[in-house]
Specification:
Blueprint (H helix, E strand, L loop, with lengths): L11 H7 L6 E14 L5 E12 L2 E6 L4 E6 L6 E3 L5 E5 L6 E5 L3 E6 L17 E7 L2 E7 L5 E9 L8 E6 L1 E8 L8 E7 L7 E9 L3 E6 L18 E5 L2 E7 L14 E10 L4 E10 L1
Parallel strand pairs: 16-20
Antiparallel strand pairs: 1-2, 1-8, 2-3, 3-4, 4-5, 5-6, 6-7, 7-8, 9-10, 10-11, 11-12, 13-14, 14-15, 15-16, 17-18, 18-19, 19-20
């Protein structure tokens, strides 16, 4: 199944859908297109028409294959939902202005506002390779990685910056499993967040991120190592998931007790939330909240 990710602008109605908060009432549904991916994979399983609706924060995704996803918003944690089977689902805005991503227990559903664009051409996610373009506030980032070995080369190509659009290349330990464009600090200038998971059973997560400097150039964003946090690293054995949640970056992972095997954590889930701040020498992600559930 070949997929192509859209690079089209949104209608005014689609933009309004993207900006809905958990308190917004939206009675009507809109036609969208869904890409279905196995969790942790960049290879698409299916592409099909869908409808998307939201009412008082409750989201319904109706797929052309007759599957319906009913998502109930969490009362405390923004971007967290419970599906019709009682499983946790997380929403992130990794598609920028093009749509939303919903991470289910065993799969991810990419909801694209442009219902027609995915019918065109071939996939940008082929044989595990990652190649996506994200646009926000007139700035675009193309993120690519071959994802064909335990070590890969990440390539970030910015465009729209007024001074420096130099291509960034760096070696990464693992494969790119996702990316998001956002304006976490609400300064009117976007950031790109690239999520990486290492090979092997641990699937340890790491982050590569850059922030726009007044849309002239970009600078790297520093995320302190989790190992430096003696409290919140207790029970950590990898399997990280990152996502932008409203105006913060969230990192969540299962908590392992001493007797747990790698595939059966029993300590629940820990979520760390970070704010983006401008330090003396660089942009930094500062942890502001830790919750367990």
């Amino acid at each position: 199944m070949n997929l192509k990710l859209p690079r089209h602008s949104l209608s005014a109605f689609s933009v309004s859908c993207l900006l809905l908060s958990a308190q917004t009432v939206m009675a009507d549904s809109t036609d969208v297109r869904c890409g279905v991916y196995k969790k942790g994979s960049t290879q698409g399983e299916a592409i099909l028409p869908c409808s998307f609706s939201q009412r008082q924060g409750f989201i319904t995704i109706r797929r052309a294959d007759k599957q319906v996803h009913e998502l109930k918003p969490d009362a405390v944690i923004a971007g967290k939902y419970t599906d019709e089977n009682g499983n946790t689902v997380y929403r992130n805005r990794g598609l920028g202005e093009q749509g939303l991503i919903f991470n289910f227990k065993h799969k991810a559903i990419y909801v694209y506002w442009d219902a027609n664009s995915l019918l065109e051409g071939e996939s940008s996610k082929v044989n595990g390779a990652f190649n996506e373009t994200y646009t926000l506030e007139g700035i675009s980032f193309t993120v690519s990685s071959a994802n064909n070995s335990s070590l890969n080369t990440l390539v970030i190509t910015p465009s729209g910056l007024t001074v420096d659009n130099a291509i960034i290349k760096q070696e990464i330990d693992g494969s790119v499993t996702g990316a998001e464009i956002a304006d976490v600090d609400n300064n009117g200038f976007p950031e790109i967040y690239v999520y990486i998971n290492s090979a092997g059973s641990g699937s340890y997560g790491s982050l590569v991120a850059y922030s726009s400097n007044h849309n002239k150039s970009i600078s790297e964003i520093y995320l302190p190592p989790l190992s430096d946090d003696k409290k919140n690293s207790v029970g950590y054995m990898g399997h990280d998931e990152f996502s932008v949640v409203e105006t913060s970056l969230a990192r969540r992972f299962p908590i392992y007790k001493q007797e747990d095997s790698n595939n059966k954590p029993t300590g629940g889930t820990r979520q760390l939330q970070y704010k983006l701040i401008q330090g003396e020498a660089s942009w930094q992600l500062k942890m502001i909240k830790a919750v367990e559930y």
